[in-house]
Amino acid sequence: MIDHLVYASRDLPRASAAIGELLGVLPAPGGRHIGHGTYNELLSLGGDTYLEVIGPDPTQSGLDGPLPFGIDDLIEPALVAWCVRPRRPLSEIVSEARSAGIELGEVTHMSRRRPDGVLLEWTLTLPQLDGPFGLALPFMIDWAESAHPSHTLPPAVRLVDLEVLHPEPQQLGDAFAIIGLDTGVTIRNGELPRLRASIETQRGAVTLTS
């Protein structure tokens, strides 16, 4: 159900090197998000879940607006978002959530090419980082007919648990219920929205935080 975690930086090569040192495995090249100003590298977190390391793409210029995930304002690399893969159509979930007063964002289309030239296409909801739940609320993705990115990644490390902190855990839990999220995530009361991922590596347990 957890599709991927987003670890962002203003310098992708340095962030990937730091992740490699921390987890004992270097992320693999992913691709460029043309028109969005970013590119990524990926690392398997076990099963159909992966870590996306993302940063500004130096080959893209002249873009309107800020980079996604608040990359422009980052002081240091951090977990900035997380993505889930629901079993129901995204538009159906968005509509139900709005009826309950929860905004999950518009459903949009994106694509990128893998290093081997294969085109990946997907639909997703845009992260609602400025909303009342902040980064505690996941965005959603549907890979449709595209191969899941984790299928080309070698086994690396394993996501043990994702802790999601928020000052209104009950309301956040209501949002999770609409999305259909019921495993792999622990909701905790916290002063601010935060993420804390526990990862099992060959070097022992590692924690990535927002």
How does this model look, in words?
By secondary structure, this protein is an alpha+beta fold. Helix content is 16%, strand content 38%. The mean pLDDT is 95.
Briefly say what this structure is:
The chain is built from 3 helices and 12 strands. With about 210 residues, the chain is an alpha+beta fold.
Secondary structure layout:
Elements: E1 2-8, H1 12-23, E2 28-33, E3 38-44, E4 50-56, E5 78-84, H2 90-99, E6 107-113, E7 119-125, E8 139-142, E9 158-166, H3 169-179, E10 185-189, E11 194-201, E12 204-209
Parallel strand pairs: 1-4, 5-8, 9-10
Antiparallel strand pairs: 1-5, 2-3, 3-4, 6-7, 7-8, 9-11, 11-12
Largest sheet: 8 strands, mixed
Principal-axes geometry comes out as globular
What would the average pLDDT be, to the nearest integer? 95
Radius of gyration: 16 Å
Strand order of the largest sheet: 2-3-4-1-5-8-7-6
Total strands: the figure is: 12
The class by helix and strand makeup works out as alpha+beta
Oligomer: single chain
Low-confidence stretches: none
Helix/strand order? EHEEEEHEEEEHEEE
Alpha plus pi helix count: 3
Helical fraction: 10-25%
Strand content: 35-45%
Span between N and C termini? 20 Å
